[in-house]
Design goal:
- By secondary structure, this protein is an alpha/beta fold.
- It has two domains: 216 residues, Glutaconate Coenzyme A-transferase; 227 residues, Glutaconate Coenzyme A-transferase (3-Layer(aba) Sandwich), CATH 3.40.1080.10.
- It is built from 18 helices and 26 strands.
- The chain has a seven-stranded parallel β-sheet with strand order 4-3-2-1-5-8-9, with helices on one face.
- Helix 2 links the parallel strand 1 and strand 2.
- The longest helix is centred in the middle third of the chain and has 19 residues.
């Protein structure tokens, strides 16, 4: 049966085992691997690489679209098979080794990785490992549930290993729109002016002679681990809906809004669920990832069309999509991430971007990557691509973490991913701060009033008032700016000492 999926007869002799294919990867190589937030990742060859690294020296630079499923990053990290990793990850084992300095991690805007490959700043790609649903008559690769950076990996690699996943229906062909920008300086504008427009081809065109091995697999993508909405995320969604409704009432948006982008993860997924109960209609998405919420909005007819680079969903939704792929193929398109995240397109289409913050400060600077200023969580992902160029750059966070021991709003962020210049709106369950057109002191007042949890509000107001007494365009008490983070490191809580304790001291 799998021979029907390899429509180029000359390639059928390349079928081999994962273990044999993995021998194409040698110590010190740079490997480009498909996969974007658990979708469309390779299942068999990475596991074979990890098993081999347990027996012999094997350490590679691994470049992907984003994070991988099937514990691939964990297996490779445990086997000491990773010397360098980019541009995004979510695995706890890998994260620990990164923060211990054992694996070099390069955190990148997701639109920039292949640009740097083309420019010769990274790589070269020695081997590309790409999951496919089919190989066409010309040797072109039909991707599965993500595109990521696969097109450029396949074009640039010396050799290509294809994992042919038989669990993905052949009818997925036609879901993708593969467009690769030309070289600079003669590059033409990316000619995409609407969410549902197709500007490329349905497959990844490659030289079939570069396909060195084909491995047959039958394993589904790892399911999303996003949690369902809760009271706090519902409140955040409500604030955003009210804000957008006011924008419509003011004549700045129509009832169809502008194309939506939502980041990956529990909070972003839950916030998008909030549109189900809104009265907005004929919505569109131009995003990186489609989660359960996007599929539900499509099923409801609330969302008319969705463009992304990946579909990362729960197991029931995954099975529903594959069982009805012809239906969804008319309503969804998957693109390379340099197109889904292209600053040029984000600005042209006027994206409403909704992304998650780890913390933000009283002036609107956002930290989305580092805990305590030093320890990497996952990476910046695509939020920077969208925030800098969006019509509206919205960042959301719960106001507190660790059962109230951490305030998500602090005097100064411990690491800056998105400066105050790129942030339009901040939202917690407590409220929403519209920062557009506000000077720093005005932003601080809006954030403290609307976004800070009551248990931290007085302390932040006190900090700001004392900072203003010293003056400055952006008032700070430098000796106290990181004191909340220091207090947490020392006492496991950002909560200020009790008033009685302060007096006694």
């Amino acid at each position: 049966m799998h021979l029907d999926r390899i429509r180029n007869p000359g390639l059928r002799a390349k079928i081999t085992s994962a273990e044999q294919a993995a021998l194409l990867v040698q110590d010190g190589m740079t490997v480009g691997m498909s996969g974007f937030t658990r979708a469309g990742d390779c299942k068999a060859v990475p596991a074979a690489l990890a098993a081999r690294a347990e027996r012999e020296p094997l350490s590679i630079t691994l470049i992907t679209g984003a994070s991988l499923g099937h514990d691939t990053d964990k297996l490779l990290a445990q086997a000491n098979a990773l010397a360098r990793r980019m541009p995004f990850q979510v695995d706890t084992t890998l994260r620990r080794k990164i923060n211990q300095g054992e694996i070099a991690f390069i955190d990148q805007h997701l639109s920039e990785t292949v640009e740097q490959l083309r420019a010769g700043h990274l790589g070269p790609i020695n081997v590309a490992i790409i999951e496919a649903a089919a190989i066409t008559e010309t040797g072109a690769i039909v991707p599965t549930m993500s595109v990521g950076n696969s097109a450029t990996f396949a074009q640039q690699a010396d050799k290509i290993i294809v994992e042919l996943n038989m669990s993905v229906p052949a009818a997925i062909e036609g879901l993708h729109d593969i467009y690769v920008p030309g070289d600079r300086p003669g590059r033409e504008p990316i000619g995409l002016v609407s969410v549902d427009q197709r500007i490329g081809s349905a497959c990844i065109e490659v030289d079939p002679s570069k396909i060195a091995a084909i491995v047959i697999t039958h394993e589904p993508d790892s399911p999303s681990n996003a949690l369902p909405p809760d009271g706090e995320t519902n409140a955040i969604a409500g604030h955003i809906n009210d804000f957008l409704r006011a924008e419509v009432d003011a004549g700045r948006l129509t009832n169809a809004l502008l194309p939506l982008q939502a980041g990956i993860g529990t909070i972003a997924n839950a916030v998008l669920h909030g549109f189900e109960s809104s009265d907005f209609e004929n919505l569109t998405m131009y995003s990186e990832v489609l989660q359960d919420s996007a599929i539900e909005l499509l099923d409801q007819g609330k969302l008319a069309f969705a463009s992304a680079s990946s579909i990362t969903v729960s197991k029931p939704v995954y099975e529903k999509i594959l069982a009805n792929i012809e239906h969804y193929r008319e309503r969804i398109v998957l693109r390379p991430q340099e197109i889904s995240n292209a600053p040029e397109i984000v600005r042209r289409l006027g994206i409403i971007a909704i992304n998650t913050a780890l913390e933000f400060d009283i002036y609107g600077n956002v930290n989305s990557t580092h805990v305590g200023g030093t320890h990497m969580m996952n990476g910046i992902g695509g939020s920077g691509d969208f925030a800098r160029n969006a019509h509206l750059a919205i960042f959301v966070s719960k106001s507190m973490a660790k059962n109230g021991d951490i305030s998500s709003v602090v005097p100064m962020v411990s690491h800056v991913d998105h400066t105050e210049h790129d942030v339009d709106v901040l939202v917690t369950e407590c409220g929403l701060a519209d920062l557009r057109g506000l000077a720093p002191r005005e932003r601080a007042r809006a954030i403290i009033r609307n976004c800070v949890h009551p248990s931290y509000r007085d302390a932040l107001q006190d900090y700001f008032d004392r900072a203003c007494e010293r003056g400055g365009q952006t008032p700070h008490l430098l000796e106290e700016a990181f004191s909340w983070h220091q207090r947490f490191n020392q006492t496991d809580s950002m909560q200020p000492p009790a008033a009685s304790a302060r007096k006694a001291a």
